Amino acid sequence: MARNPKRPAGARSARTSLGDHFTAWRHHHRDSLADALGRMRGTPGSTLLTILVIAIALALPTGLSVLLDNARVITQGWDGRAQLSVFLKMDVKEERQRALAKDWAELDGVADTEVITRQQALDEFREQSGFGDVLEALPDNPLPPLIVVFPSNNEPAALEALQQRLSKLPEVDLAQLDVAWVRRLHAIIELGQRLIGVLTLALAAAVVLVVVNTIRLAIESRREEIVVIKIVGGTDGFVRRPFLYSGFCCGFAGGLGALILVGTALWWLGGPVNQLLDLYKSEYSLTGMSPATALILPLFSGALGLLGAWLAVSRHLGEIEPQF
């Protein structure tokens, strides 16, 4: 029988384990990040300008959103909040009126109540109207007992629900609510929120375009280097990664810059705004960004930079090929 030939002693099967693949992948990403940061430090002028443009573009909608959130919180506790005037029937005694006011103050959606007796209403009307002599000629007090209800929620739907609830009570003759100003306020806030949303989308697109142009210029400046890498067998993925890291780093740094700009603006406005709130006897003060916003903004900006770099690389990298 023929014997199987033996393999040469020095021959070995070349096998690459999954761990080796992961190690090579990790090392290349680390080197790509280091290369991106090094090239950004090598061109400080253009890099700083790009980061500043991104920071200003994102600071505008972020700052407006923070101010709108402050306005929403402040107006919820404003002394000019909606009041529900509940007129009781004429035969309701003062003791029953005060008992109703106490019970209503414990209802859901009610912050406080105020009792205005028939005599108090008459005295106030006489003082403000100037018809004291006419009122003295009347045989009886024509004004009904009144309970002023201060809702804890200024949402129009909640106010109308509270009005309907109190109107059904047997002692109530009329529950009157003027929600026109409340509707206007909420409409203005809703409009502002939508405008900020549109502005955010527009400026996010501007950030992407800025990064696209920056990465395009970087690709053109490294055209010969890219050609050499492709000649020696470098893949598009190998060439693409440093540019993607450059886009992400620019975007991330721009998001941090936006946080600094917004924080500085809020600090500068804080004194006058808080002084104005003190004049209106408000217990609120201007607040800054929430921790969630401070965390999400740089990541969101970095994602925009990554998207812009991907678009630029996908568009321009394929145009660079070795010419034999």
From TrEMBL:
One cellular component (GO) term of this entry: cell division site
The keyword Zinc-finger appears for this protein: no
Residue intervals passing through the bilayer: 48-68, 195-215, 243-269, 289-313
Keywords, comma-separated and alphabetical: Cell cycle, Cell division, Cell inner membrane, Cell membrane, Membrane, Transmembrane, Transmembrane helix
Span of domain ABC3 transporter permease C-terminal: 199-315
Chain ranges of the FtsX extracellular domain: 83-173
Membrane topology designation: Multi-pass membrane protein
Record bears the keyword DNA damage: no
Subcellular location: Cell inner membrane
GO biological process: cell division
Oligomer and partners: Forms a membrane-associated complex with FtsE.
Similarity comment: Belongs to the ABC-4 integral membrane protein family. FtsX subfamily.
Function: Part of the ABC transporter FtsEX involved in cellular division.
Protein name: Cell division protein FtsX
